[in-house]
Each structure stands twice: as structure tokens, then as C-alpha cells.
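User: These chains co-purify. Model them together.
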Amino acid sequence: GAVVSQHPSRVICKSGTSVKIECRSLDFQATTMFWYRQFPKQSLMLMATSNEGSKATYEQGVEKDKFLINHASLTLSTLTVTSAHPEDSSFYICSAREMVGGNGETQYFGPGTRLLVL
Amino acid sequence: GENVEQHPSTLSVQEGDSAVIKCTYSDSASNYFPWYKQELGKGPQLIIDIRSNVGEKKDQRIAVTLNKTAKHFSLHITETQPEDSAVYFCAASKTGFQKLVFGTGTRLLVSP
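Assistant: Joint model of the two components:
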């Protein structure tokens, strides 16, 4: 299957600082990428849909000024957690959508980034 | 909107046994149903998927079945091995709508 990478895999930061997470599709172009947040022992919660060359679409309840998303190329999307606080500590996972055949699509996930805000 | 329910939440089997995880969905327009395996501390890995134009798909020890009339789909793992132990998520989506709606996950434990 297609490969999606994330960087960094783990980050620890002080409260009030900003953290940037990168998501890359390594062997395919992705016009659409997704950002999820996952709490321990829970399912994935979609935060936003990132579209190349346009503004991201945020899910209800997700602060767009808090979680800045940029999708500047067909292989890279970034999530910036601004003014991070301890409650932002979580496992952040991106996925990239690959078009398959004529009208199919498949989503591949990155390995995740564990954020700890002190 | 779409709602996906997944059962059971936990499943313990002996090595070599079969494991079955079931999901139901609410939106009859959904036409794509992937299954993901997530190991501790890692991102979900796509293991198999099925589209609504087929009723069953197999890949070695893994199979997925889809019943469009009843709006449910199942993951079947045969000859389970300890390395199959993980959390499995089902999901559903509609072509063109992009978003996957996930089930709540099933924690599978395969004991040697």
C-alpha cells in the first residue's frame, strides 16, 4: 500500500508554545489529507479536511485558529497547534487520500505524532 | 449523517481460532468499507477494504463480507496468530464525500 509519513513522531513542549506536525504522502499525490486526534482507548476523531491549494474544512467544535492547517503541495500537509496547553496533549494522526481506478479512493494513515504539553 | 456501530468491543481468542468483528452502518448511500488495524502507539494500517459492488473479498487469512440490504459488514480472520493482537476499526464512506466514519474499535487479543 501507499506510504504516509509524519514528523515528528513525538514532541514535548512547554505550555504556550506552538508545535508543527508534518504529514507527507511518499509515493502518491494527495489532493486531500485529513487530520485526526485520538485519545487513549478511543476511536479516531476527525479534526479537519485539508485540501491542496485551498482552506481546510474543520469539524464542528474544532478551533481553526488553534489548529492551523496548511496544504501547500500535493504531498505535504502541516498541522500547527498554536499556543499549546496541556489539554492539547494527544495522539495526532494524519491520513492521505489516494484515488484508485476510476472512482474509488483509499485513505492511508501516517504513524502518528504524540504531543505532550507540559 | 452516517453512524457506524462496531461489536464486540473486546475479543479474546486462542491462537489458531477464527475471529469475527461486525459493523453496521446507517446510511444506505455509503459504498466504501475499509478495515484498519492499529497497534499500540502506531497509526492505523489498512488491512482490507470492500466496495459496495462486491459481497466478499479475501486476502490470505483475512476476509470481509458485505450485506448491503442489512447494512452490515464483517471482518473475518482465520488461523489467528499472536501478532494479530491489536485494535481493529471498521469505517464507512461515500465516494465523493471523502470523510470516513469510524466504528468504536475492537480490541483483539490472541493468546498463544
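The first strand of chain A starts at residue 4 and ends at 7.
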